[in-house]
């Protein structure tokens, strides 16, 4: 007489076969990955521009309020001391030659913020499109 034992309900999932399959797939991908040609993209080429970007015109504001202009595009140009009217004339002349002439402002750290803003406003009134501020790498 055999007595049947009541079946126990399994509450665990056996994941070992899944892990085996995953490892086999991983090995297959690792072996075949170097053999796959990633494909080459034939990129279009463009011609290089012949124009060289202009060096910016540098306006220096000294601590005593003195304005100096230095044309960095001209190798032999020296800084020239100007007032606001002469600065406008220089800017207009440069804008007539090169409408995209960049201007950088280098102000002494003791110059009032208002003075720098006046020069920037002057640049804006004369349609200077590219205005930047120069700063020195400090040790502070």
Explain the layout of strands and helices.
Blueprint: H1 16-32, E1 57-61, E2 67-71, E3 80-82, H2 84-97, E4 102-107, H3 113-125, E5 130-133
Parallel strand pairs: 1-4, 4-5
Antiparallel strand pairs: 1-2, 2-3
What descriptors fit this protein?
cell inner membrane; Nucleotidyltransferase, domain 5; transmembrane; protein transport; 140 residues; 5-stranded mixed sheet; alpha/beta; cell cycle
Characterize the structure shown.
It is found in: Cell membrane. One of its GO terms (molecular function) is transmembrane transporter activity. Its main location: membrane. Keywords: Cell cycle, Cell division, Cell inner membrane, Cell membrane, Membrane, Protein transport, Transmembrane, Transmembrane helix, Transport. Belongs to the ExbD/TolR family. There is one protein chain. This protein has 140 residues and is an alpha/beta fold. The protein has a domain at 57-135: Nucleotidyltransferase, domain 5, CATH 3.30.420.270. The chain is 31% helix and 16% strand. The protein has helices at 16-32, 84-97, 113-125; strands at 57-61, 67-71, 80-82, 102-107, 130-133. Strands 3-2-1-4-5 form a 5-stranded mixed sheet. It is elongated and about 115 Å long. The model has no long low-confidence stretch (mean pLDDT 85).
């Amino acid at each position: 007489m055999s007595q049947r034992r009541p079946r126990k309900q399994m509450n665990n999932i056996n994941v070992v076969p899944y892990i085996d399959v995953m490892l086999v797939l991983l090995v297959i991908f690792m072996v075949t990955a170097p053999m796959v040609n990633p494909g080459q993209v034939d990129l279009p080429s463009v011609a290089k521009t012949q124009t060289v970007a202009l060096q910016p015109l540098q306006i220096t504001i000294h601590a005593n309020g003195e304005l100096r202009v230095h044309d960095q595009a001209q190798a032999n140009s020296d800084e020239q001391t100007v007032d606001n009217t002469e600065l406008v004339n220089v800017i207009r002349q440069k804008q007539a030659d090169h409408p995209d002439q960049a201007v950088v402002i280098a102000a002494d750290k003791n110059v009032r913020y208002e003075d720098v803003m006046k020069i920037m406003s002057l640049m804006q009134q004369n349609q200077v499109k590219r205005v930047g501020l120069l700063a020195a790498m400090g040790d502070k």
